Amino acid sequence: MVRAKAGLLASLVICSIVLSVLIIFGQPVPNSGGRGTGPWFGPKPGLHEISLPGRIYICSPNQGAILIETLSQTYSDLVLTLGQMEYGSEKGGDVWVTGEYTSDSITPGVLFRYDYQISRGLLANWLTMFYETDFPFASIDSVFVPLDGGPVKFINSATGVLWQLQADLPLSVFQQAAAEPRNPAAYPMAVMGQGETYSVAAGIFDLVEAQEIAVPACQLEEVRIEDIIHSFFLNPSIILEADGTETYTDGFGALRIFPSGALEYTSGRQGQGAVFWDQPQLMQATIDFLVAHGGWPGNMLPVYLSNRP
Q: How far is CA 200 from the centre of its chain?
């Protein structure tokens, strides 16, 4: 019993010495908590949160539109409602019907618009009642829900092709949003017409008239430089450049911190041959990198993070 107590005491002394050395020399102290061993920069967004559309338009019969304010309650209600969409209860013949995307494809309804081509794999993280293999397309950039209960249209404006699906979803939410838009942006939109020297794809909206748009005030975010450095390196060498830029390196990667506060990281490690990732894998790798090295600003997403404290 005495030997056991002596061994336990010796172990505690050794642990105390190791932790003291780590603290003295500025090394991150190991953390056994659920947030990993490095600095914690805030919650990690899920793929379902970053796969939401950048803009939502409520389209009217006169080819006008109202832009819904992002981070508003109306935006959240609409994306949550569309996320509940599922196959129609009565399937007859082909479930998906392919068609041509033209200006007549946009009728009174709600248009969910992306700024990029979203793959079907990433789309399935938002439309949770569907699997990736349920979609007959590789990617789209718009989803349109007509108010008359017609088929939902998945649109690829770059190729001019759309896919229609008669789906079940709470249509009354979209109809109510169109009848009484609660959080519209203050700028009326209209379908953009063709010009003498340029053509315009269907579904592109522009301001009805010139507007004075208020620029929101910017607030400088305090950057935890030491934590960011320790998230990359344990004991880096420091190179001070003539313009005040600091470069931290472990001989492989390099982290440059500019006087303006901008950060630049260069990885010197090579991969294990060619690796082909799909869009969800690339997006997940991006999320993991940002969360581990500085955090993901909450206002970069169209909705607030669900796991934010």
A: 27
